[in-house]
C-alpha cells in the first residue's frame, strides 16, 4: 500500500487522519516539530489501530531533515497539515505566520519537486471566503480574507496552483475546512488547545468540565435565526475521511482543485450550546457578550463539488459532534 507523509500529523486533525489512514491500510510517516502537539496522540493512534507509524520530529522548513526523510521513505503523496492556525496570534505576529505557513510550504514543495513526489493535499480554510456574498458558499465564490492567517492560506493556494500550472506532474487538492469539532468516538484522541481556547467547542467542553466558569456568547444581535453566529461545524472524523478521498482522487486525476469540506448545515452558537446540554446532560452556563472583532454573522458550505468529484459527504451530525467532543474532554480533562 502507498506510503503517505503527513506533516503536522501529531496535531488535532492530523492525528485523526493518521488513524484513518492506518485503518485504511496506508503506511504513514509523520513529520511534526511538536510545536503544538504531543507525541502521546500518535502513541494512542498506534494503540487504537494496532498498527505502527513512523514519527520524524522535525520542521518542514528544515530542508536537510525533509530531504533525509524522503531519502529514507518512498513517499507516494503528502498530506500537509503543518502550520500555525490562530487568527489573533497571526495579527500580532505576521512574520512568524508567513514564515511557518508560506515559507514552510515552499521549502516542503522544493524538496518534493527535487525527489519527484508531486502529489499534495493541503489544509486550507473557509476563512479564504471572508464575509461571503452568498451562503451556502460554493468554491467559485470570491476569495478575500481580513487577517494574516487567512492571507497565508490564500497565498499558499495560489502558489500550489501555479506550481501545478507550470509542471503538469503536480497534483494538488486544496481542502477548505469549515469548522472542525468533535473527536474520535472512543474519546482517546481529541483537540488539545494550549491556554484559553479561542474556538467555541473547546471552550464549551472546558466550561462543562469545570475549568472555566461560563461561556461568553459573542453577540446575539446578528441577522441570524436566533441572533448568534452561524457556522458549518464538521466532525473531525468526517474531515479525516475527506483526506483519504482526496489522496485517492489525486491517484487518478491531475491538476489543482479546491474542495469545500463542510456539512452544508449552518448551526448557531445557541444550537451548539443547547445540543451539548441535551445530549450530554451537562449544563453550560453562558453570558451574552459583545460581538468579537472580525467575526462574520453566518457562513456554511456548499459541499456539492466534494460529493460529486471526491465521492465524499459528511455523515455525522451535531449530536455526534457534541457527544464525541465531550467523550474526549471528560476522559482527558487536562489533555494528553
Ligand atoms: P494543530 O495545531 O493541532 O496541528 C498542526 C500541527 O503542525 C501541530 O502538530 C504542530 O506541532 C505542527 N507544526 C506546526 N508548524 C510546524 C512546522 N514548521 N514543522 C512541522 N510541524 C509543524 O492544528 P489543526 O487544527 O490540526 O490544523 C491542521 C491544519 O488545518 C492547519 O494547517 C490549519 O491551519 C488548518 N485548519 C484548521 C482549522 C481548525 O479550525 N482546526 C480550520 C481550517 C484549517
Ligand atoms: N464563539 C463564542 N464564544 C466563544 C468562542 C466562539 O460565542 O468563546 C462564537 C463565535 O463568535 C462564532 C462561533 O462561536 O460565531 C464560532 O467561533 P470559532 O472561534 O469556533 O470559529 P470561527 O468560525 O471564528 O473560526 C474558525 C477557525 C479559524 C478558521 C475559520 C474558518 O478558528 O481559524 O474557522 O475555517 F479560519
Task: Give a short overview.
This protein has eleven helices and 13 strands. It has 336 residues and is α/β, with parallel strands linked by helices.
Describe this structure in words.
With 336 residues, the protein is an alpha/beta fold. The chain has a domain of 226 residues: Rossmann fold (3-Layer(aba) Sandwich). The protein is 41% helix and 17% strand. It contains 11 helices and 13 strands. The strands form 4 sheets. A 7-stranded parallel β-sheet has the order 3-2-1-4-5-6-11, sandwiched between helices. The chain has a two-stranded parallel ribbon with strand order 7-10. Helix 6 links the parallel strand 5 and strand 6. Helix 9 crosses helix 11. The mean pLDDT is 97. Bound molecules: nicotinamide-adenine-dinucleotide and uridine-5'-diphosphate-4-deoxy-4-fluoro-alpha-D-galactose.
**Overall 3D geometry?**
globular
Runs with pLDDT <50, length 5+?
Answer: none
- What name does CATH use for the topology of the domain at 3-183 and 233-263 and 301-314? Rossmann fold
The residue-averaged pLDDT reads 97
Based on secondary structure, the structural category is alpha/beta
Biggest sheet record: 7 strands, parallel
CATH architecture of the domain at 3-183 and 233-263 and 301-314: 3-Layer(aba) Sandwich
Going by CATH, the homologous superfamily of the domain at 3-183 and 233-263 and 301-314 would be: NAD(P)-binding Rossmann-like Domain
Residues in helices, as a percent range: 40-55%
SSE order, as H and E? Answer: EHEHEHEHHEHEEHEEEHEEHEHH
Total helical elements: 11
Bound small molecules, by name, code or SMILES, are: nicotinamide-adenine-dinucleotide, uridine-5'-diphosphate-4-deoxy-4-fluoro-alpha-D-galactose
Q: What is the CATH top level name of the domain at 3-183 and 233-263 and 301-314?
A: Alpha Beta
Amino acid at each position: 500500500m502507498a506510503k503517505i507523509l503527513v506533516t503536522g500529523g501529531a496535531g488535532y486533525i492530523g492525528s485523526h487522519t493518521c488513524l484513518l489512514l492506518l485503518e485504511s491500510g496506508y503506511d504513514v510517516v509523520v513529520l511534526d516539530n511538536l510545536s503544538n502537539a504531543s507525541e502521546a496522540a500518535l502513541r494512542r493512534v498506534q494503540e487504537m489501530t494496532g498498527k505502527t507509524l513512523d514519527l520524524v520530529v522535525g520542521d518542514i522548513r528544515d530542508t536537510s531533515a525533509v530531504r533525509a526523510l524522503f531519502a529514507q521513505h518512498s513517499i507516494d503523496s503528502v498530506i500537509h497539515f503543518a502550520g500555525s492556525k490562530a487568527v489573533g496570534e497571526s495579527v500580532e505576529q505576521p512574520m512568524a505566520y508567513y514564515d511557518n505557513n508560506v515559507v514552510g510550504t515552499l521549502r516542503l514543495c522544493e524538496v518534493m519537486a527535487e525527489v519527484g513526489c508531486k502529489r499534495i493535499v493541503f489544509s486550507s480554510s473557509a476563512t479564504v471566503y471572508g464575509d461571503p456574498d452568498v451562503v451556502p458558499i460554493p468554491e467559485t465564490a470570491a476569495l478575500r480574507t481580513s487577517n494574516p492567517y487567512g492571507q497565508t492560506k490564500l497565498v499558499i493556494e495560489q502558489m500550489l496552483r501555479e506550481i501545478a500550472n507550470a509542471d503538469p506532474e503536480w497534483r494538488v487538492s486544496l481542502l477548505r475546512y469549515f469548522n472542525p469539532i468533535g473527536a474520535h468516538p472512543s474519546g482517546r484522541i481529541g483537540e488539545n488547545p494550549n491556554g484559553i481556547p479561542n474556538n467555541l467547542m473547546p471552550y464549551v467542553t472546558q466550561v462543562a468540565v469545570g475549568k472555566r466558569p461560563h461561556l461568553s456568547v459573542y453577540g446575539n444581535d446578528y441577522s441570524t435565526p436566533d441572533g448568534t453566529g452561524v457556522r458549518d461545524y464538521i466532525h473531525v472524523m468526517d474531515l479525516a475521511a475527506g483526506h483519504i478521498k482526496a489522496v485517492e482522487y489525486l491517484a487518478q486525476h491531475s491538476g489543482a482543485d479546491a474542495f469545500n469540506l463542510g456539512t452544508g448545515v449552518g448551526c448557531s452558537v445557541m444550537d451548539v450550546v443547547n445540543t451539548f446540554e441535551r445530549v450530554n446532560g451537562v449544563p453550560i452556563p453562558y453570558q451574552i457578550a459583545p460581538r468579537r472583532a472580525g467575526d462574520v454573522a453566518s457562513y456554511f458550505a456548499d459541499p456539492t463539488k466534494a460529493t460529486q468529484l471526491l465521492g465524499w459527504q459528511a455523515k455525522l451530525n451535531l449530536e455526534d459532534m457534541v457527544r464525541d467532543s465531550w467523550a474526549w474532554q471528560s476522559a482527558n480533562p487536562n489533555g494528553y
